[in-house]
Amino acid sequence: MKMNLFSGTAVIAGFISLAVVSCKKESAKPEDNDNEVITTVELHFTEQGTSNVKTFKWEDLDGDGGNAPVIEEITLTPDKVYDVHIKLLDKTKTPVEDVTEEVEEESQDHRFYFIPTAGSNITIDNLDNDDNDIPLGLTSTWTTAAAATGSVNVVLRHYPNGGKAEGDPVNSSKSSSDVDVTFNTKLQ
User: Fold this and answer.
1) Strand 97-98 to strand 139-144: parallel, antiparallel, or no bridges (unpaired)?
2) Can you tell me the distance from the alpha carbon of 117 to that of 154, in angstroms, rounded to the nearest whole number?
3) For 56-68, what is each residue's pLDDT tens digit?
4) What is the DSSP string of the chain?
5) Cβ neighbour number for residue 168 with a 10 Å cutoff
6) Which residues are 113's β-sheet partners?
7) Most distant CA pair in the chain: distance in Å?
8) Is 173 in contact with 164 (CB distance < 8 Å)?
9) How far, in Å, CA of 123 to CA of 78, rounded?
10) pLDDT digits (tens, 9 = 90+) for 24-75
11) What is the distance between the alpha carbons of residues 73 and 43, in angstroms, rounded to a whole number?
12) What percent of the chain is modeled with pLDDT above 70?
């Protein structure tokens, strides 16, 4: 009789332990850190020493597939320096969500890369940094040289597990693209 009581108690204790462990696993579920939904990328250019502002936009309201995105050509003046800031929007939501704030809040998980083509005569530097002093790129400086045409690839990479490093290439396996847009450029 004592053996059966002990066995029954052990079985019940085992079930309770299993239930507690199962509950802990469910509550300890890691937080999702998915890629951002971005339908609109605005590049705001302010010519240094002036209040002249130009805005150029990429917009894809229906996402991948469907209609082609609308991409405005970036037209700048040669031999000028521009302070540039990026605004990111999700127009699938009402009201429209400003995703820029989320990227800034999660700056250690994001990084912009700017890749001008050879011959575009555009140099991009002075990117703002995250809290670890690693480039973020919500703001930057674009310097133009002589008249030219070309393009600039703007890529926002998302590092869902952190670990962003200064030397990470644009195609780092630690990250994925939230935005990968190529703007045609003209300096005239």
Assistant:
1) unpaired
2) 11
3) 999 999 887 889 9
4) -HHHHHHHHHHHHHHHHHHHHHHHHHHTPPPP-PPP--SEEEEEEEETTS--EEEEEEE-TT-SSSSPPEE--EEE-TT-EEEEEEEEEETTSSSPEEHHHHHHHTGGGEEEEEEEPTTS-EEEE---B-TTS-B--SEEEEEE-SSEEEEEEEEEEE-TT----TT--TT-TT-EEEEEEEEEEEE-
5) 18
6) 155
7) 97
8) no
9) 12
10) 333 333 345 567 799 999 999 999 999 999 999 999 998 878 899 999 999 9
11) 11
12) 82
Bridge partners of residue 115, in order along the sequence = 153
How many residues does the structure list for the chain? 188
- Look at strands 40-47 and 97-98 and give their pairing: unpaired
Q: Is the peptide bond before 95 cis (omega within 30 degrees of 0)?
A: yes
Q: Supply angle C-alpha 151, 108, 157, rounded to 5.
A: 30
Buried b (16+ CB within 10 A) or exposed e, 71-92: beebebeeebebebebbbbeee
Contact 134, 165 (CB under 8 A): yes
Torsion over CA of 172, 173, 179 and 184, rounded to 10 degrees? Answer: 50
Domain ranges of the chain: 1-30, 40-187
Amino acid at 3: M
Q: Which residue from 180, 16, 33, 19 is spatially nearest to 111, judged by alpha carbons?
A: 180
